[in-house]
Amino acid sequence: MLATRQTNLIELPEAGTWNIDPGHAEVAFVGRHFGLTKVRGRFPGVNGAVVIGDDISVAAVEVAIDMASVSSGDQSRDDHLRSADFFDVDHYPMASFRSVSTTVGAQGRTGSLMGELTIKNVTRSVALDVEYLGRVTDPWGGERAVFSASATINREDWGLTWNMLLEAGGLLVSKEVRLEVEVELIRQAA
């Protein structure tokens, strides 16, 4: 039997600790190149946990992101992203996110997660729009809950300021970046 509870006919995860399944978690980003082309990248090196309280809006989220795991489909771009021009992974190998507050939407399936995102030892507030996608029992009897989250940030707020001016005007790399998170959580034994 799944560890769930119902709110507005939606089965929500039970209170407890739910660990991120690193093999089924992704923090991704979308930026623009030349102000036109979408460039996508991801950080597959993600781990952490979500502690859900008896009140679903009482949740604590802690996530660590291995910045060297960045993958955009182009080795030279990935090496540049790892360099001191961007993430400077030699000095700042990890980024983190820690929740501060949670707001649950009226139907219980969507909400907002306010937290602190730290990149290169710079911490800024970020509000993630969150969607609960459901729960399932995996083939090995584990209980899983699945969430998506997203936000748009200005990368310069974290000191990620490298850029080039284009001859026709504008910037080579967009300041605005869309963050997209997909995560499966596995319930830990009580």
Give a quick set of tags describing it:
mainly beta, Lipocalin, 8-stranded antiparallel β-barrel, two-stranded antiparallel ribbon, elongated
Protein described:
With 190 residues, this protein is mainly β. The protein has one helix and eleven strands, in the order E-E-E-E-E-E-H-E-E-E-E-E. The chain has a single domain, classed as Beta Barrel (Lipocalin). It is 4% helix and 57% strand. The longest helix is centred in the middle third of the chain and has 8 residues, at 75-82. The two termini are 15 Å apart. The mean pLDDT is 88.
TL;DR of this structure?
The protein is mainly beta. It has 1 helix and 11 strands, in the order E-E-E-E-E-E-H-E-E-E-E-E.
Radius of gyration: 18 Å
Low-confidence stretches: none
- The CATH topology is Lipocalin
Report, as a whole number of angstroms, the end-to-end distance.
15 Å
Shape: elongated
Strand percentage lies at: over 45%
Note the total helix count: 1
**What is the β-strand count?**
11
The arrangement of helices and strands along the chain is EEEEEEHEEEEE
The percent range for helix content is under 10%
State the CATH class.
Mainly Beta
CATH superfamily: Lipid/polyisoprenoid-binding, YceI-like
Strand order of the largest sheet: 3-5-6-7-8-9-10-11
Structural class, from helix and strand content?
mainly beta
Mean pLDDT: 88
| Number of structural units classed as domains | 1
CATH architecture level-2 label: Beta Barrel
